[in-house]
Amino acid sequence: MIRVGVVGASGFMGGELVRLLLGHPYVQLTSVAGGSSAGKTLASIRPGFLGVRDLVIDSADPELLAGKCDLVFLALPHGESAVLAAQLLNRGVKVIDLGSDFRLKNPADVEKYYGRPAVHAELLDEAFYSLPELTGAVPEGTRLLASPGCFATGLNLVLALCDGLVESVDLFGITGSTGSGITPSAGVHHSLRSTNFVAYKALNHQHEGEVRQFLSGRGAGIDFRFVPHSAPLTRGIHLTTIARTPASALKARWETLYGGKPMMIRYDAPVALGSVVGTNLVAMGMVEQGDSTAITCAFDNLLKGGSGQAIQSMNLWLGFPETAGLPMIAAWP
Ligand SMILES: NC(=O)c1ccc[n+]([C@@H]2O[C@H](COP(=O)([O-])OP(=O)(O)OC[C@H]3O[C@@H](n4cnc5c(N)ncnc54)[C@H](OP(=O)(O)O)[C@@H]3O)[C@@H](O)[C@H]2O)c1
Fold first, then answer.
1. pLDDT digit string (tens) for 229-280?
2. Is residue 332 included in any domain, yes or no?
3. CA–CA distance, 209 with 285 (Å, rounded to integer)
4. Which domain holds residue 129?
5. Residue nearest atom 33 in ligand 1 by C-alpha distance
6. How far is the centre of ligand 1, averaged over its atoms, from the C-alpha of 14 (Å)?
7. N or C terminus: fewer CB in 10 A for the chain?
8. Do 42 and 135 belong to one domain?
9. Are 49 and 90 in a shared domain?
10. Would you call 235 helix, strand, or coil by DSSP?
């Protein structure tokens, strides 16, 4: 059994990691760790654990974690992962970072998209950016995985599909409030969000950096513009784009890229968030009219956009079945 730990267990992403890893057939969860929550029980923060699992949150001490874990998931705010990741790697522990600290290769891009200097810039090149459907097997000798951002996951999957068929697309994204993490703010205040719908970071979302880097690394020529919106939803991401190309061409491309991939489902209709929330699936729908195809894409930001995808990557990395421990059927309603 591989011994795994989760740092940031009190947060939305870390909590989902804990929930899934406790049910994973090939790993043993040996530490849940955090910052200000250290010493508390996870059940005091996440009611779902109450009376089921009495996990006490460890401090995020590298020595303690290295003694308990072979692999550690870091689910920490931007800029908080790099130092701990380096300390864990130095102690022989594998690391999967769900934050942005190792997604970009060029330190100048970290400054550009996150407005802060890269910490442990020497690790940027080493980190393997893992989007399982498009990056496949994790290379031998990898020590550090960078998991894509939630919007970036959908953008990469849709843009890779369209690449070579159209020169450029505009995409419109919608996200739920859990995308902003557990700390309350005006943007996620229920009273303010539940009756509102608003675009933000128009043409300037920070995930553009990793998407442009990823596409150019694949030799893709497609350009894109992206406007995200914040919706009165708790979880889920929905993307829409219109590609000036027949659906038949996109469907043929789909078969090459995603045919047989366990998380990818194609519909000949617009997709609903409700069909994927609570799962690690990506639903993509294609509807043709005239010379154009409307592509819609939906997935759960906390699962396929974060914790589930990181576990999917771990499964590939450690040689487990790709779907092990991952929910594949949505709760409804
Ligand atoms: N939410 C999403 O949809 C999503 C999707 C993909 C990727 N991500 C990325 O995943 C990461 C976590 O996101 P999230 O939404 O789970 O955030 P979150 O809900 O704010 O949780 C972050 C947790 O990190 C802990 N923490 C903060 N600083 C720490 C430190 N120095 N040492 C130890 N623990 C510390 C906090 O726990 P304490 O209370 O113990 O301090 C907090 O609960 C972020 O980088 C985010 O960008 C999020």
1. 999 999 999 999 999 999 999 999 999 999 999 999 999 999 999 999 999 9
2. no
3. 26
4. 2-147+306-318
5. 35
6. 7
7. C
8. yes
9. yes
10. coil
